[in-house]
Design a protein that fits this description.
The chain is of the alpha+beta class. The chain is 31% helix and 31% strand. The protein has a five-stranded antiparallel beta sheet with strand order 2-1-5-4-3.
């Protein structure tokens, strides 16, 4: 046998650590009580948390994105939007959108959906 052998155990350990961190972040976002949807630069849903799936269903990301695009929402402020939920009813939601810079010249949007139960929220979710 000819060739060289190199130790890849450190690369495998780094990859395993990265996978564990990603899994931990998924669990953190699934613990958030508000529905969260992440939209990429091509306006495609990339990620949703457990609350989003419970509220809107697993396959509703693209439809929600279309509804968000029909009424472009200003960044970092709460707005009310009527959206269809998994049960088939339309409910009012407070929606908050933020742009997140992923890398140079590539920004994704994070949309947070909180059912509007007549409670007024502050204008800013975060600063």
């Amino acid at each position: 046998m000819w060739g060289s052998i190199r130790d890849v155990s450190q690369e495998l350990r780094i990859q395993h650590d990265a996978e564990q961190r990603i899994d931990a972040l998924r669990r953190v976002f699934d613990a958030v009580p508000d529905a969260v949807l992440v939209i990429d630069e091509h306006l495609q849903p990339q990620w949703r948390n457990a609350a989003f799936e419970e509220t809107f269903g697993i396959n509703q990301g693209a439809g929600i994105v279309r509804l968000l695009l029909d009424k472009p929402l200003p960044e970092r402020t709460w707005h009310t939007l009527r959206l269809p939920v998994l049960s088939g009813r339309d409910l009012n939601f407070n929606v908050h959108c933020s742009r997140i810079l992923i890398r140079e010249s590539v920004a994704w949007r994070v949309a947070v959906f909180r059912e509007n139960q007549g409670v007024r929220h502050g204008q800013e979710l975060h600063r």
